[in-house]
Amino acid sequence: MIVLENITKEFNSKSGKVKAVKNVNIHVKKGETHGVIGYSGAGKSTLIRCVNLLEKPTEGKVFINGVETTSLPLPKLRVARNKIGMIFQGFNLLKTATVYDNIAIPLKLLGYKKEEVKIRVEKYLEIVGLTDKHKNYPSQLSGGQKQRVAIARALAQEPEVLLSDEATSALDPETTDSILDLLLKINKELGITILLITHEMNVIQKICDHVYVMENGEVVEQNTAINLFTKPAHLTTKKFLNTISQRNLSSTLISQLNVTGAVTRLTFVGESTGKPLLAEVSKKFNVQPNILTANIIELKNGIVGNIVIHLIGDKDQVQAALTFLEEHGVGTEDLEGQS
Amino acid sequence: MSRFEQFTNQWLPIIGKSVIETFQMVGISLLFAVLIGIPLGILIVLTRPGQALQNKFLYQLSNLIINIVRSIPFIILLFFILPFTKHLVGTTIGVKGVIVPLVIYTAPYIARLMESALLEVENGVIEAYTAMGISTPAIIWHVLLREARPSIVLGLTISTVSLIGATAMAGMVGAGGLGDLAYRFGHLRYEVDVMYATVFILIILVQSIQSIGNRLAARLKKD
Predict the structure, then answer these.
(1) φ, ψ of residue B131 in degrees (nearest 5)
(2) Same domain, residue pair A116 and A225
C-alpha cells in the first residue's frame, strides 16, 4: 500500500548539504500499521512528509497503492493526496471554525455535495466520539478532543492511508492511550493502513505490527513488533525498550552476582508465557533461580514476557538449565558485568 | 438666541458639509486601497522564501515599492504625484483629485498590515490543507484569509484612522473635509469654537471606528 524505495532527502543549509534521510526503504502492506521510532533529529518527520510529498525526496520513489506519486504532476498529485490522510502533533485545525466546519470545509473544497458533506461529518464525528461537540470551537476543546477532530477530518475524506506525525506527542499519557485506542479501532474496523512516526515506545507497543528504528537519517533496525521486543539488536532499539520497562541492571550489580552464578534475561513469547518453566528448572537441575526483575508487555499481536534471573549453581548445571529453557521456546541472553 | 444656537446656525451647514467630504474621501480611498493593499499583502506573503509561490524577484520588488512609497510623507506625496493624478482622473483638485494620492499613501500601509496579519496564521494549518490535496487559491481564501480575519479587521481599523489623519491635508488641494475646516477657520481665521467642534467630531469619529473594529475583531476571534 505504501512503498518507499531508497528515499534520500537532502537540505541545503548554511554549512553545506545535510542529508536528513538516507536511503530508506519502507513497505507497509494494506491494513497494517507500521511505526518509525527515533529521537528528535533522526529524520523521521522529514521521512513521513516525503510520503505525501510535502517534502520532495532528493532521490527515491514513493508508491501509494501501486501508483508512483513522486513523478505525478501537481493536479494529479492533489487527487492522490485526497486518499492520504494526515494527522499532526499540533492538530492544525482552523481556530475560527467550529468542529463541524473543520471537518466540512475541506470536503466542500474537494467538491462534495452539501448532503454528502453532512452525512460524512456526522458519521466520522460519531466514530471519534465527538457528536455533542460539533458546535464548539477548537479553543473550547482539550488536546485529546482536538486530535479527535483532526482524525475525523482526515477520515472524512475516506483515505486508504493515514499518516500520523507524532500525533500523541503533545498529549498526556491517559489521552495518548485513548487516541491510540481510536487509531487501533480505525485500523481494524475501517481497514485503513497506517504509517506513524513517534519517539514514544508505548505507541509502537500498542498499535504497530512492524517497527523501523531510525537514527541519523538511516533505518538502523527493522522488524515485526514482537521480534523487535524480544530480540532487539541495535543499541538505540535497546535504549527505547528501556523506556517502557526496566531492562538493564547496573554492571556493578551484575559483576557482584556473577560470582555465584549467571545473570540472564529470559524472554517469553506466545506459548512459553503459559508454562511454569522456572519451577521445572529448579526441580530438574541443581540450580536456584532468583528473579531480579520481571515484566510483561502487551503488543498489538501478542504478549512478551521479560524476566531477569540470577541462576545460582555450578557452571555446567546452569548451562544445562539454560539449554532446557531454550528448548522450550524461551529466549536467553547473558547480561555482562564489568570486565 | 443663545450662543450655542447662534454657533450651530452659523456653522452647522459648513461642518456638515465637511463631515460628508471626510466620509467621501475616507470611504472611496479606503475601498481602492483595500483592493490594492490586500492582494499586495497576500503577494508578499506567498512569494516569501519557503512559501507556496516563492519568488525572490517578485518578493523583493514588491517589498522595495512598498518601502519607497511608505517613506514619503503624505504632504510631499500629494504634490509629487500631481502629474500622475491629473493623468489618471483628469483633475488634481477637489475630493476627486485627492483620492489618488490617498490610495497610493494607504495601500502599501494596508499591505504591510496584511502581511503581519497573514504571517500570524500557523503554517501547520496550511500544510494540513496542502496534504489533503486542496489547491493553493482555495487555501488562500478558506484558510489564510479566514484565519487572519481578526487581525485583518484590526489592521483595516488602524488604516482607516490613519487615513482620516491624512485627509486633513487634503485641504491643500481644495478637497475640504474636517481637517481642512479646523485649519482654515480654526487656525487661519482664529475661530476657536470651530476648531474645538471639529476636533471633538474627529475624536468621536476615531473612537467609534476603533471600538467597532475592536468589537468586530473580538467577535471573529474564537480563541
Answers:
(1) -65, -25
(2) yes
CB contact under 8 A, B133 and A93: no
For residue A339, pLDDT over 60 is answered with: no
State which of A243, A265, A281 marks the end of a domain. A243
| Predicted confidence (pLDDT) per residue in B96-142, tens digit | 889 999 999 999 999 999 999 999 999 999 999 999 999 999 999 99
Q: What's the CA gap between A24 and A129, in Å, rounded?
A: 37
Domain count, chain B: 1
Q: Which among A54, A94, A105 has CB closest to B130?
A: A54
Total tally of structural domains belonging to chain A:
2
Q: Shortest Cα distance from B141 to chain A (angstroms)?
A: 11
CATH number at residue A295: 3.30.70.260
Interface of A with B (CB under 8 A): 52, 54, 77-82, 84-86, 88, 90, 92-97, 105-106, 109-110, 137-139, 150, 157, 163
pTM of the full structure: 0.86
Domain region containing B96? 3-220
Mean pLDDT of B156-163: 94
Same structural domain for residues A198 and A296?
A: no
Last residue of a domain, one of A223, A243, A263: A243
**How big is the A-B interface in CB pairs under 8 Å?**
69
pLDDT of A223 reads 94
Give the ipTM. Answer: 0.87
Give yes or no: residues A239 and A257 share one domain: no
State the pLDDT confidence band at B34, using cuts at 50, 70 and 90. Answer: very high
Chain B environment of A163 (Cβ under 8 Å): 131
B150 CB within 8 Å of a chain A CB? yes
Query: Which residues in chain A have Cβ-Cβ distances shorter than 8 Å to B132?
Result: 81-82, 85-86, 106, 110, 157
Judging by beta carbons within 10 Å of its beta carbon (0-12, 13-18, 19+), is residue A241 exposed, middle or buried?
buried
Q: Do B146 and A94 touch (CB under 8 A)?
A: yes
Question: Nearest CB to B131: which of A52, A105, A110?
Answer: A52
The per-residue pLDDT for range A177-203, each reduced to its tens digit, is 999 999 999 999 999 999 999 999 999
Please indicate, yes or no, whether residues A171 and A311 belong to a single structural domain of this protein.
no
Residues A16 and A113: their CA atoms lie apart, in Å, by: 49
Q: Which three cell numbers, joined as nine digits, stand for B15?
A: 461642518
CATH code of the domain covering residue B56:
1.10.3720.10
A6's enclosing H/E stretch is strand A2-13
A145, A53: one domain: yes
Structural element, H or E, at residue A95: none
CA A237, CA A224: separation in Å to the nearest integer? Answer: 13
